[in-house]
């Protein structure tokens, strides 16, 4: 699969790191693009910065030379993790002024998977209306709401409960988190 991972300036850079850590570039073509504000939040949240696994291809936000800027070369799936309300709103309203936004627009028009992982809380009516628009346009909204029934013991394990659901929706096999009742069967 050809997967584009987009990272924005929402809190939750660790979600992006753990997703990248669990996508094997020898199995999938993995591309990464950062929004303009993502580096500032990554600097706050990830000591040592974002680690790009060997084989991951990174793209400049401002260059439309990336393949997925065109419908003729859309990725199979795009994940925006974490997804800021600003980026989410811009996608919902068709802004395409950089390669991240354009790629999301392309994913929707080409009927490819577009998975948005917002972290924001609480939500206002504008956020909810934008969620609705994006759902109607075919996106998946997968909020970064961790689960606790697997009794995670540390922050990475908490984060992985969300990353596991992202991998499920991408269709990427994983054993990151035990599934409900799996251990007992
Ligand atoms: C430490 C920090 C945490 C932030 N967390 C969020 C967040 O969880 N959700 C959100 O929508 N914006 C958050 N923001 C604000 C966004 O970074 C800001 O709206 C930015 O313009 C988003 O730009 P982008 O969508 O191009 O990444 C945060 C900003 C900072 C500095």
Question: What does this 3D model show about the protein?
Answer:
The chain has 185 residues and is α/β, with parallel strands linked by helices. The chain is built from six helices and six strands. α1 packs across α6 (155-170). The structure holds flavin mononucleotide. Residues 8-11, 35-38, 40-41, 44, 84-87, 119-120 line the site of flavin mononucleotide.
Overall mean confidence score, pLDDT: 95
- Quickly count the domains: 1
Ranges where pLDDT stays below 50 over 5 or more residues in a row are none
Q: Report the portion of residues in β strands.
A: 15-25%
Taking the alpha carbons of the first and last residues, their distance comes to 31 Å
What binds here, in terms of ligands, is:
flavin mononucleotide
Helix content: 25-40%
* Name of the CATH architecture: 3-Layer(aba) Sandwich
Strand order of the largest sheet: 3-2-1-4-5-6
SSE order? EHEHEEHHEHEH
User: What's the β-strand tally?
Assistant: 6
Q: According to CATH, what is the topology?
A: Rossmann fold
Q: What's the helix count?
A: 6
Provide the CATH superfamily. Answer: Flavin prenyltransferase-like
Shape: globular
| Main structural class | alpha/beta
Based on the structure, what is the oligomeric state of the protein chains?
single chain
CATH hierarchy, class: Alpha Beta
The Cα radius of gyration reads 16 Å
Largest sheet: 6 strands, parallel
What would you say about this model in short?
This protein has 185 residues and is an alpha/beta fold. It is 35% helix and 16% strand. The protein has a single domain, classed as Rossmann fold (3-Layer(aba) Sandwich), CATH 3.40.50.1950.
